Each structure stands twice: as C-alpha cells, then as structure tokens.
Amino acid sequence: MGSLNFGFNDTRGDKVEVSVLREPQISAVRAREVLDCRGLPTVQVDVVVDDVFLGRADVPAGRSRGRHEPVELRDGGRRFGGFGVRRAISSVKDVLAPALVGSPAAPQRLLDARLVELDGTPDRSRLGANALLGISLAAARAVAAASGQPLYRHLNADAHVLPVPQINLINGGKHASNDLDIQEFTIMPVGVSTFSDSLALSSEVNLVLHDILAKRYGKAAVNVGDEGGFAPPITEPTEALEQLHLAVEQAGYSDMVVYGLDCAASHFFDAERRVYVLAGKSQSREDLISFYESLAKNWGVVSFEDPLEEDDFEGFAELTRRLDAQIIGDDLLVTNRGRVAHAQTLGAGNALLLKVNQAGTLSEALEAARQAVQGGWSIVVSERSGETEDAFISDLVVALNAGQIKTGAPVRGERTAKYNRLLQIEEELGSAAVYAGLSYRRPC
Ligand code: PGA
Ligand code: ZN
C-alpha cells in the first residue's frame, strides 16, 4: 500500500505534513499472447501498480470443460486452428486498460466487480473470461509486490497449510489417446508429515509405475497424457487401479497412500439415451453408483470427482449419502458460488474443485470457496489441463489453507512449476508450515 503525502497550515499558521495510506494505483495494464503446455495460445497480462510494481499472470485453459463455464474468447479462423486469443488481448488493451489505468488496484473485490461490470454479460462473452481473469490475477500479484509480501501471505496473513497433492499418475478420458474413460487416477500421500515428503513419495511411485507399465504393456504405454500421467492401453478402470496399487506397493508406501479419481463423467454420458458408456458397456446411474461403491470398498478410493454428469445434482446427493468418501464437484459446480449453495442445500457432494478460470475472477473464486467452507465442505484447488509455468494456484491453495491441490503428475514444467513453488513456500513458512495429511477432508 502506498501513501499520499500532503500538507496544510494549521490555525496557528504552522505547516502540518499529513501522510494517508492509500491503495496502490494501476499505472499500466498490458497483455500478450503466449503458449500453454499444449502449444495453444493463452492470455498473459501484466499489471503495474504505483509505477514500479509488476504483477504478471497467465490464464489457464481446460479441455474437459464444463458446460456452465464462462466464455473464453477464441478467435476462430485458421490462425492457431481457431484457438488464437487476439480478441481477448484486444479486450484488455482497448477496453479494460483504458478504463482501469489511474484507478485503485485494491481491494481485489472492488477491482473484480469493476471488471465484471465492464464486461456486462452474465457469461463474460463480451470481453472474454480469459481477459478478465488475466487482469484479476495479475493485479493481485502486483498489489502483493507493492506490499512487499509473498502472494499467499498477501491473500491471507494466516496462510500456513501445505496441501496433500492429488497426483495424477494415469491419464484417460479427454486427456489421453487411450480407451480409458475415467480421466484421472490419482494417489494422495496422506501418511507422510511434510509436503516435500509427499512429493518425493509421489515421484518414486511414478518411476516404479513407469517400469511396471512398460514391462506389462510395452514402451508405448509410458507415453503421457495432457497432465503428465501415463496413458497405457487399458480400458477397465480397475485394471488401472491395479497397476497403481502395484506401483505404490513396490515403492513401499501402501500404508501412506489413498486413491482418488476424476471420473469427468459428463464425457462418457450419452445424453440422448441417458446412460453412461464405461469401458464399452452401457450403465444406468444406479449401476455406476454401485460400481463406485465397489471401488471405495475394494480399491481404497476415497475421493471421487465428477462421478456423475454435470447437471445430476440428485445423483450426486444419492452418491454422497451412500459413500463415505469425498465427492467433489468440478463441472457440476464450475466454481460458482450459486451452484455450490444449491448443491449444499441438496447434499449433492461434500467438496468443491476450485478453478480460478471457471469463476472468472479471483474474488468470485474466493466467494465460491467461502460458500464451500460455510457449508462444511472441503476445497481442492485445481489446475487446468492447459497450463503454463504460472504457479498462482500454489500460493492460492496455501492462502486458503485448503489442504488439497490437484495439478497433475510430478513431471513436465507446467506441473513441476506448481509443486516447486509449494516447496519454496514450505521452506519460507519453516516451522509454521503444517502439512494437511490425514486432515485433508477438513476444510480450513
Ligand atoms: P480440464 O480438466 O482442465 O481439461 O477441464 C481438468 C479436470 O477435469 O479436472
Ligand atoms: Zn475434473
């Protein structure tokens, strides 16, 4: 926070110097097209406050997107196969920057409200959710820089919980070129005592899994999917879980690990016939729920993300009643406070997957988080499959004391950037750092 200095003469004619604290002012907003980990363009924004403090942020992009997500502006046409973001860049340069330069960058809530107002549409289709989010995140970083604090502490003075990572070691669904319908098979190292130990464990398991898969399915099986997990030629979900279990066992960590799935079920739901087509077999909602019960019972799966299609609040409620497990809404909730509140009244799930680009601005993501916590839900802060080296979510997960992060396998720069940032934060916090471990299901 900067200060404003001015003076006046008091009644005796003596000069009085006054210094008033004021919010940092936006001096410049710039935007450019950069590449994400899939080689597709995305928006990068710089916000400069008080002339010298720079905040820079990249906007992530999903492939397994929910139907209710806000509109990300893409250019269409031939350039980059239609994925160009020059329209969003021009929203920043031609509309948002002129409106914002010279105004306060904080509080974040007011800045974000202004961004939403400037767009003026409920789905952000005029200026693009990717334009708004870039400014929102970059401004938070710039204000943190101006206050001389790391981002996580700027967002929450009491930030201290290091998350259990949901490490995505086997990829399927829209993230891989195999026939595995379930999108993510994750391990959660809950039985270690520090974040750095959880990462070492995960990396060791990943190396063992590499050898197991290569031996059993041939070397093409260790090609990786969008989030860095292996994409073996497996069809049955239980076979994938079996390989994962073998790797955990051979690495010597059976007692320390539990398992999670991101089913991303909308993507194997046949909306016309109202059936799920899993491993080539049509299944009713009831069949699928019984299948998940067996995975919880026999395979140690404790966390199910998007187990049913994205509008089936009722099915989510039924599953939440039947399973003693974490039931996470991703496409169901799209990090939207209203949808979280609705799900809570129905008992449809017990955890929010928090993705900043689904919310549209940082403040809206924080509102969804607040709603989750008020209803006693857990929060898993998440990346998108299309990421860059930007590690904003690592600071965010610690700021929220959320206790869980999902950011892919422990390989590839756009994934390791997040894990490495968490290692730095763990070191900075020193003895104040608490690894969420077995309390991962308890929010804040
Ligand atoms: P996406 O997938 O980023 O491709 O949408 C991630 C997820 O479904 O959690
Ligand atoms: Zn998901």
How does this model look, in words?
Helix content is 37%, strand content 21%. The protein has a 9-stranded mixed beta sheet. Strands 3-4-5 form a 3-stranded antiparallel beta sheet. The relative contact order is 0.14. It is of the alpha/beta class. It has 13 helices and 19 strands. The mean pLDDT is 96. The chain starts with a strand and ends in a 9-residue tail after the last strand. The chain has helices at residues 86-100, 108-119, 129-147, 151-155, 195-217, 237-251, 285-299, 313-322, 337-346, 356-359, 362-374, 392-399, 413-429, and strands spanning 2-9, 15-22, 26-35, 41-49, 53-58, 161-162, 164-165, 167-171, 184-189, 257-262, 269-270, 275-278, 281-283, 301-305, 326-329, 351-354, 378-382, 404-406, 434-435. It folds into 2 domains: 19-148, Enolase-like, domain 1 (2-Layer Sandwich), CATH 3.30.390; 157-439, Enolase-like C-terminal domain (TIM Barrel). Helix 8 (313-322) links the parallel strand 14 and strand 15. The protein binds 2-phosphoglycolic acid and zinc ion (ZN). Zinc ion is lined by residues 262, 264, 305-306, 330, 353.
Kindly report the spatial arrangement of strands forming the biggest sheet: 7-18-17-16-15-14-10-9-8
Q: List the domain count as a whole number.
A: 2
Give the cofactors and ligands. 2-phosphoglycolic acid, zinc ion
Which radius of gyration do the C-alpha atoms yield? 23 Å
| N→C terminal distance | 27 Å
In the CATH scheme, the class of the largest domain would be Alpha Beta
Question: Structural class of the helix and strand makeup?
Answer: alpha/beta
What's the average pLDDT? 96
So what's the overall shape? Answer: globular
Give the biggest sheet.
9 strands, mixed
Give the CATH superfamily of the largest domain.
Enolase-like C-terminal domain
SS element count, helices? 13
Strand content: 15-25%
CATH topology of the largest domain: TIM Barrel
Q: Find the count of extended strands (DSSP E, 2+ residues).
A: 19
Which architecture name of the largest domain does CATH use?
Alpha-Beta Barrel
